[in-house]
Fold each of these.
Amino acid sequence: MKRIGVLTSGGDSPGMNAAIRAVVRKAIYHNVEVYGIYQGYAGLISGQIKKLEIGSVGDIIHRGGTMLYTARCKEFKTEEGRKQGMEQLEKLGIEGLVVIGGDGSYRGAQKLTELGFPCVGVPGTIDNDIPGTDFTIGFDTALNTVIDAIDKIRDTATSHERTYVIEVMGRHAGDLALWAGLAGGAETILIPEEDHDMNEVCAKLNRGHDRGKKHSIIVVAEGVGSGVEIGKKIQDATNFETRVSVLGHIQRGGSPTATDRVLASRLGAKAVELLLEGKGGRVVGIQQNQLVDHDIMEILDRKHTIDEKMYNLAQELSI
Ligand code: F6P
């Protein structure tokens, strides 16, 4: 393989730039040319593709976002869109592709693999919801952003003796809420993977109040429902002064943590290694601090699960 491409797709995540840098530098180190595909699959279809040099990825390791831009592309879900994308790759003599993104991005890579084009997926999403890897690029940074917010909100929650509902990202996955809730000492964590009973949520708040607790923090993953509505229900049922904070897209930005930079560098380089070994239709990951790779279809067929033990621990510690 003498020429590969790299793209980022779906929701951006801090550390994607570090992964792009690793792909480019690792490939060039092995005398392989790298082409950057801009705006994800949309740019692949329209041919927004430029050769990247060593210097193209200088000064980005510490930056959030993605220098290649990103998009959620409906057109690539069609046969015609993929055909156009394949033509662009063939035109430039690109022989393999690294796709950095989440579940939707992996689906695009799987489709290209079916067409006989070698692709390797690198898990980049703040949701930490990709099977076959303990962590995804950006999760640690987003988690630290959420913790910073919770700590700040706790100060004012204490001063005013209020109940706070903090809504964090995660349409289908509760990892961010679970880890942030555990690390932030939340009283209750609501995630899409676990059923909850609002009566019990309120009863717990009342029990805490009776014990002399002055404030409470409830972390809700957006997939559970609107934090605003949950806050209203709590206020109505308990009469405790309740405020809601929806953290939103600040969770997706910011300089990646050292952990994310290192993870991104390792995973990006590993993806190139696989392509150089002639392996496509794979995804890379990290399990017990060892780099691993899996068949992309196997990963897409698996359902993301949360760490039940961690969920139970959070319950035990927040009695
Ligand atoms: O998948 C990452 C993610 O940040 C989810 O947690 C969130 O639900 C979604 O993207 C938001 O997407 P958008 O930025 O397109 O609104």
Note: Residues 11, 102, 125-127, 169-171, 222, 252 surround 6-O-phosphono-beta-D-fructofuranose (CB under 6 Å).
Amino acid sequence: MLDYQAILEDIHNTLKSTEDTGDVASYIPELAKVSKDSFGIHLQLITGEDYSAGDYLEKFSIQSISKVFSLAKAFQLVGNSLLERVDVEPSGNPFNHLSLLELENGIPRNPLINAGAIVIADILLTHLENPKEDFLNFVRELAHDESIDYNETIAESEHETGFNNYAAANLLKSFGNLHNEVEDVLDFYFHQCSIMMSCRQLTNAFFVFTNKGKCLKNVEHLTASQVKRINAIMLTCGFYDEAGEFAFEVGLPGKSGVGGGIVALLPHCFTIATWSPALNPQGNSYLGMKALELFTSKTKLSIF
Ligand code: GLN
């Protein structure tokens, strides 16, 4: 039996003495205020035991990790028909890249790049009665945690500087792939990205993807086939132009956010979340990637 607690503490100690060459995201001004020194890691086994180190209870802005929740909700609401409006191929480009979108007639490469997530947000806006409230309740339900909430200051901060996402949304609209108003879709999108969660809350919520669609309380939210597809999209697209590198070094499906969080999982086995705010040039947490690489190397647990 592996001593998971000792492994996490060992990783934490190794990272403390590793120079963090990353930088916190500054294109969303509120995110630049977070201290670069925080680090948290939380591991939850499918059997329920959990292990942790560092700032694993501190909440941070989940940013693009929210795209997995919105994709899951959209699958729940409209099933495979969402694939008519967004593809499932890796983009090999940064998360906010636009030229492929124009070349490919307004069909985003996948739901985890910004343009794809904006299409998914549009689907949710069409199908949810009270979109922001219903989406938040979905995330709370998955995590079994009513304390999870939006961060209005971060949402407003991104609204003020979100020119690139306005460009993506306008391009989608011009191709007929955005059914609601640009302003309404982006208001929803900026809010979903602003959700604050800790590493522990993220592993609780992502349990559903480790456990074939059933959440911590054994309620079925997604079919096994939908979960298979979501995990495949995370593996191939979850880290943008670094998805290959993450599969190569870590070997797990996962998703990152520019708030510095990463969640990854081994189906039917464990869910793990890390938080370290400084990002590498691809916009993924520099030390978070290292922590997960150390974890799968030390435990020899990966999908490969
Ligand atoms: N809200 C961010 C954006 O749209 C999310 C990006 C990310 O986390 N990679 O730019």
Note: The mean pLDDT is 97.
Amino acid sequence: MFDVHGVTDTSHDKPLRLFYALWPDEAARNALLELQMQQRGRRTRPGNLHATLAFLGEQQATHLPLLEEILASLPVDAITLPIDRIGYFKKKRIVWAGSHAVPDTLIALQQSLADKLNEHGIDFDRKNDFTPHITLARDAQPPLDRPFEPFIWGIRQVALVQSMQEGGRLEYNVLTSIYLASET
Ligand code: ATP
Ligand code: MG
């Protein structure tokens, strides 16, 4: 079949690999990079650092407006996340940064997103309990138990993100964002 331009356009049929994430601002990113320097393993590229809220996987591009609408409908209360914990996922061999004190506001945001995805029948990965984390390194040995200076991530940006392979390397491309209130 040909479209009106006489060229078959199948780009809209190609599924996109999508996820929702907390996206760090420059201050948080720099603090995470400092923490990352102390870790062994294959490090996440600086521009790719994030915390996943919900992983959707392959989705039709025609779903994008709905996914953006859902993002726009989320609560925007301020969230401050203390980063005071280095964790390890043994099976995945991932070293991550996270928190011993995940605030209720973040749990509420994730729950609201999960509820809305369920309401609209959008499949996402909910196998595991929600443990907000930023992957610092992959193919990694268990982390060294070193003290570090905790910092507060004042979360501002929540994004719908596309995961893609660009010239053999993994790129996360922010499609749409909302901005949370700031604490002060
Ligand atoms: P790669 O798959 O190449 O190792 P990646 O896991 O970072 O890289 P994606 O698989 O596209 O890239 O995942 C994007 C984000 O979603 C990452 O934060 C990843 O941890 C998370 N994610 C991926 N798969 C799942 C899943 N099945 N359940 C929960 N989160 C997932
Ligand atoms: Mg993956």
Note: The first helix runs from residue 26 to 37.
